[in-house]
């Protein structure tokens, strides 16, 4: 799934994860009633859509992510692009070996 790509069916994602609306939506700062509206077809704002993707599709624990992490990644991409690509490939292979789903992402 690409950055800001439309989430086709948040209800389906929630059900696959086995979460009720309160559990699912509160993890990204949305009320249960707000989440219910999104599940019923109301347009989801881009920030909510991106949080849903990061937390529930990519399975990223946002409490562990720091700004410095992003700065390190950007620095590595800019100064050592071959190393970045090699590390990215190794991480993807490891995730696939562990049975984790590797989301389709754009090359930055």
UniProtKB/TrEMBL annotation:
This is Helix-turn-helix domain-containing protein. Coiled coil: none annotated. Residues 11-65 form the HTH cro/C1-type domain. SUPFAM superfamilies: lambda repressor-like DNA-binding domains.
